[in-house]
Inverse folding.
């Protein structure tokens, strides 16, 4: 997606525009395609505020315009910063900048002014941000340093720094800090600090080459190439275009291990894109994957892409993804915004059936917007904007859970007891699906990755999103849906499964 929509930036570089002239031409050309956003608006007295048809009520969306990959996520001074690929001038892809939102609880988000804008080096593509606690960069103690890809004639890595808590950034005068004139896809740097070596490490993807480079630095400005990671003999991993890699340490069976994630544009767990992960060791120079049955998938649904982790979160491993799939690229029927993020998730690495399993649950902060649990005793649910439905299933018989609305639109969830699988039916009856032939899929299937006799499914339902996970996070499947109204009915067949529901209060009041 990024590659074929970058012609404008490359053209500007070809005619040799300086910063000031480039930005003027950039804005004049792109204003014709969309209406500018009122930056920073966070609420209002209008009863229709954030109430457009199919507008998510608990998932992050901007007030207006296009977003894609989450970028630069960092936790600092009690504030969660979410930067993201953003078009300030329209709800189609273009004018790639870093939008910005902040939260103190991961659910109530305040949209901030655009943080980083294009310049003579090109569009501002994906990247990451870190809190420089010890002033290794010289930009100031506790400066927030962002590293991103400048997409122009070539894709190169640049940095910018903030000394006001991540609200405004100054681009480093020595950019690019990692130059490139030879590779095509060469982007999306993710930076991590390693306490063992007292070094910063950066990983980013070489898309068509199905590899990722790891670099190191002591000051975030001067970088040295350490190694190149390849999936090697794992042919099933050499697919699509590699993007948005991540590298982070975890504790597994009492030992320190590392996880390397790769987002692929095609060849995901269903159709189109997805996020795969490798488990192994990192010695300060090279990541070596342990021998397992790859690819392993972070999310087994259709709509979790560009998933990366927040930095500076201590022992917690918190991530978020772009809720979309490259197979339909956001051509769905919503306005004035386009695209949203998944719910924020917490991950742990545990063993299942002799190999590590990345377990994913929705963060505990969701309790801040949750009402009391109520038993489900009738088909009609007493729900309003969004809700969580928990269904406990005995693994002795199949169980089907159908979410429906008054228009007769339906979304299916089934537990295949014999195969111990979770199966999602997002077929043509779920709502609006005609915008893409890749959207209606009647069978998305994943193992439940559990040997338990009972399994509790946690089903998070929003206006245009359904995320299904097991209570312990053994599997998660995320999907967009576009029903004409909220699924507010449930039909459970196959067994007398125990079910309870609670409202999740909208976050935009």
């Amino acid at each position: 997606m990024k590659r074929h929509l970058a012609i404008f930036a490359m053209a500007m570089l070809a005619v040799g525009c300086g910063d000031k002239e480039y930005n003027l031409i950039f804005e004049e050309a792109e204003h014709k395609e969309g209406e500018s956003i009122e930056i920073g608006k966070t609420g209002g007295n209008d009863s229709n505020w954030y109430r457009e048809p199919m507008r998510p009520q608990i998932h992050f969306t901007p007030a207006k315009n296009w977003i894609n990959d989450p970028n630069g996520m960092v936790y600092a001074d009690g504030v969660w910063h979410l930067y993201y690929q953003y078009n300030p001038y329209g709800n189609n892809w273009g004018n790639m900048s870093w939008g910005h939102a902040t939260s103190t609880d991961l659910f109530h988000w305040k949209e901030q002014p655009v943080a980083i804008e294009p310049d003579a080096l090109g569009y501002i593509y994906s990247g990451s941000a870190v809190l420089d606690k010890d002033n290794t960069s010289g930009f100031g103690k506790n400066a927030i340093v962002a590293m991103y890809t400048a997409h122009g004639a070539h894709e190169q890595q640049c940095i910018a720094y903030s000394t006001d808590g991540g609200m405004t950034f100054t681009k480093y005068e020595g950019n690019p800090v990692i130059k490139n004139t030879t590779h095509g896809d060469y982007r999306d740097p993710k930076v991590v600090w390693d306490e063992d070596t007292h070094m910063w490490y950066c990983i980013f993807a070489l898309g068509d080459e199905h590899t990722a480079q790891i670099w190191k630095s002591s000051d975030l400005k001067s970088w040295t190439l350490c190694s190149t990671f390849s999936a090697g003999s794992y042919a099933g991993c050499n697919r699509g275009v590699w993007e948005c890699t991540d590298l982070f340490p975890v504790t597994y069976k009492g030992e320190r291990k590392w996880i390397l994630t790769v987002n692929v544009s095609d060849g995901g767990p269903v159709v189109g894109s997805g996020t795969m992960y490798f488990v192994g060791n990192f010695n300060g120079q090279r990541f070596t994957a342990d021998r397992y049955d790859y690819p392993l998938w972070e999310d087994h649904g259709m709509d979790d892409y560009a998933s990366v982790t927040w930095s500076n979160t201590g022992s917690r491993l918190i991530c978020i993804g772009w809720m979309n799939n490259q197979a339909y690229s956001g051509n769905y029927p919503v306005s004035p915004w386009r695209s949203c993020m998944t719910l924020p998730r917490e991950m742990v690495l545990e063993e299942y059936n002799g190999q590590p399993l990345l377990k994913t649950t929705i963060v505990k902060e969701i309790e801040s917007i949750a009402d009391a649990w109520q038993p489900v005793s009738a088909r009609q649910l007493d729900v309003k904007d969004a809700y969580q439905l928990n269904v406990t299933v005995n693994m002795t018989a199949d169980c089907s859970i159908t979410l429906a609305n008054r228009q007769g639109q339906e979304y299916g969830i089934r537990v295949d007891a014999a195969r111990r699988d979770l199966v999602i039916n997002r077929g043509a009856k779920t709502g609006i699906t005609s915008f893409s032939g890749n959207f209606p899929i009647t069978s998305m299937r994943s193992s439940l990755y559990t040997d338990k006799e009972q399994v509790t499914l946690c089903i998070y339902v929003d206006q245009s999103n359904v995320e299904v996970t097991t209570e312990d996070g053994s599997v998660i499947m995320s999907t967009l849906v576009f029903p004409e109204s909220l699924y507010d009915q449930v039909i459970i067949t196959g067994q007398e499964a125990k079910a309870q529901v609670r409202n999740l209060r909208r976050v935009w009041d």
Summary: The two ends are 34 Å apart (CA to CA). The CA atoms of residues 140 and 163 lie 7 Å apart.
